[in-house]
Amino acid sequence: MTSVQTDDHKALNFHDLPTRTARLRNGIELCYVEQGNGLPLVFIHGLLGDWRSWQPQWDAFLAQGYRCLSYSRRYSFPNANEFASPDHSALVDAADLAGLLDALGIPAAILIGTSYGAFTALAFAVHHPRRALAIVATEPPMMRYADFSHEGKVLRAEFERKTQAAAHALQRGNDEEAVRTMTDAINGGEASSANTAGALQRRFENAKAMRALMLSTDPFPFLSPQQLREIAPPTLLVVGERTQPIHDAVFRNVCAAMPQARASRVHGAGHGVHRDNPKEFNAIALQFLQREIESLPRAIP
Questions:
Q1: What is the mean pLDDT of residues 248-261?
Q2: Angle at the Cα of 190 (from 176 to 182), degrees rounded to 5?
């Protein structure tokens, strides 16, 4: 397995980085890009994103001396994996992430995830506790945590009504309508940065990933409060100041279950925090990692 590295993080534009494909032991193939040296740091995108989602973060984290990797989860662009079962979830994605690290010879890494990628990062830390060095998790959609409050239950019911409309569009074969409906449910109306022409085009390219999750028997598996409390790596939980109420309700209850984690709110951002206010998100995440870096293992290549 070869990978792309360069000592000069400005040598290639992010979108010009050559992609590589890692073939995991389970036969799944994952597209990824890699650049830089130092502690390995893996970016994990959300439901309708892919490896390209982290362009606003790339240069900032490379400049701090990390070995940065961004990959596309199992069913995201441009991966061509076939649906293996009706049980796709963050638990499957976490297992895939472990397989990716194995393929690249990385014993442990810093994880930065957004939305479903944040859910994946926390699931990875639960099931592979020694392989996460530190975690930055933005609005993990652990929807069952909404049920921990009356307000959350009401908001979850409304959210599921919207997502069912997207599922019905998928069943009719109208992927574009499904993507637009799901985008509105997750991010809000037309003012969201997820609704720009370029962002929507990338989301259309990831309709397969949405289909795999929405048709899953358990798209939002439950990680118990005890499991979350036992996550040992330094963890920063991030939420957008203007996020949808359902995400805020879930976030507050996840924070309550993780007293060991730090929490931060990013000004002017919706659910796509790293995209809506990348300058503040990058500063907060990098400051957190810098503060925790002395405690991280030094033997990691």
A1: 98
A2: 40
